[in-house]
Design a protein that fits this description.
The protein is α/β, with parallel strands linked by helices and 416 residues long. Helix content is 26%, strand content 22%. The strands form 4 sheets. Strands 1-2-3-4-5-6-7-11 form an 8-stranded parallel beta barrel, surrounded by 5 helices.
């Protein structure tokens, strides 16, 4: 049975560690601002070399996105970056590219590194894919706008490696090719600086010539109690969630299942990777009896997300959530277990404050174990002096009734 790789986002070293701990087969990241997440925690060349060494020690692959659409100045900077990577022997397992000029530079400096074609190019048909194959592309990252039937046909006709998104945000524009941010805020989405104007509320007003009438009209829905509140998120797309149709996606023959979210937290990455890893493993063990477990639903629903959809894969076309832009998470990560002593004390890297009397929740690193409650018994500083409360960005030692493992994430339930 062909089980695709599980590809996780990695905007930071913590996210890389979370992805590896919870079962990713590969991660993708950026070096500098030359990718479509220019404002997330991209790596320097030296940082990337260390991150790549860590990932490979875990038996995981690492891909680098260089998928902007650069002008000549940007292309010159990418030329410099690729030259530095080659000289530092810090090459990834694949480059994610979209621009032919960048493709040429990748082949010039790192000719043996596979090339994955970004979804940004909008490769919808087999003829286009075969053209890119003739240029040295090894894998096509397919547009989210394709159906499962179209994906299966594409795979069969091209014989190429393909990658599809299975979870995360969806762009209102075709394959992310949007200019709205550049128009409104002079921040260019296709150069990695999307300000996400599609997530804002909008109203419309009639104009007489160039003068607004001053009368605001609702676009589609009336959500507010007053006329001034009747705005709508008309451009706001739902979030992709395909756990329920994972067997159908696998059966198309795709090579890789991609999770969106390089701007997300390490807790988000750990949670989504854990669910999809367990789902893929469950399907692999018993394809005929695959079903969505309630704990997977609970984990994904606990994360900050918009209304979920299976997207175009199953022919759904109503994918705008006009009533709200985002739902708040009902859990907050407070720390990660970095080590466990012989006495069972967990050494915690604190991310948010918590007290010794709080009842916490654990997202376990161990596969097929559901989140469980944690009841601290003793909390101390690193010198084992008792404390009542752990403070952000400190390391503390925690003794609890329950057994913890390295990589476990401690969480606190938040009131909605």
């Amino acid at each position: 049975m062909n089980i695709p790789e599980l590809l996780a986002p990695a905007g930071s070293l913590e996210s890389i560690q979370a992805a590896c701990d919870h079962g990713a087969d590969a991660v993708y990241t950026g070096i500098g601002p030359y990718n479509l997440r220019a404002r997330c925690g991209n790596f320097s060349v030296d940082e990337f070399r260390d991150a790549a060494a860590y990932v490979r020690s875990c038996g995981v692959r690492i891909y680098v996105a260089v998928n902007t659409m650069p002008d000549d100045d940007g292309l010159a900077r990418i030329d410099c970056l690729l030259s530095l990577l080659a000289k530092a022997s810090a090459v990834p397992d694949a480059f994610i590219i979209s621009d032919p000029g960048v493709l040429t530079l990748c082949k010039k400096y790192c000719g043996n590194v596979p090339l994955h074609l970004s979804t940004q190019t909008g490769t919808f048909n087999s003829a286009s894919a075969l053209f890119w194959k003739s240029q040295g592309v090894n894998r096509i990252i397919l547009p989210r706008e394709m159906s499962l039937e179209e994906i299966a046909s594409f795979v069969k006709k091209t014989g190429m490696e393909t990658e599809v998104f299975v979870h995360g945000a969806i762009c209102v524009s075709i394959s992310g090719r949007c200019l709205l941010g550049a128009y409104l805020g002079k921040r260019h989405p296709n150069r990695g600086d999307c300000p996400q104007p599609c997530r804002l509320e909008y109203r419309i007003t009639p104009c007489e010539g160039k003068i607004e009438s001053g009368q605001w009209l609702t676009v589609e829905e009336e959500h507010g109690k007053t006329a001034d509140e009747n705005k709508t998120y008309i451009l706001n797309s739902k979030d992709l969630n395909t756990v329920s149709i994972l067997p159908q996606i696998v059966s198309t023959g795709v090579k890789s299942l991609k999770i969106e979210g390089r701007n997300k937290s390490s807790h988000y990455v750990a949670s989504v990777v854990k669910v999809y890893r367990e789902a893929l493993d469950a399907y692999s063990r018993d394809p005929g009896n695959y079903s969505v477990r309630s704990e997977w639903v609970d984990i994904l629903n606990s994360l900050e997300h918009r209304t979920y959809t299976t997207g175009f894969y199953t022919g759904e076309y109503f994918m705008q959530e006009t009533g709200s832009s985002r739902e708040a998470s009902n859990v907050r990560m407070v720390g990660t277990v970095k080590a466990v002593t012989d006495n069972g004390e967990a050494i915690i890297d604190v991310k948010n404050p918590f007290g010794v009397l709080e009842t916490l929740n654990v997202l376990p690193v161990r596969r097929n174990r559901i989140p469980f409650g944690l009841h601290p018994v003793l909390l101390t500083d690193i010198d084992r002096n008792p404390i009542d409360r752990a403070i952000t960005n400190r390391v503390v030692m925690l003794t609890a009734k329950e057994t913890l493992r390295v990589g476990d994430m401690l969480r606190r339930e938040e009131k909605p």
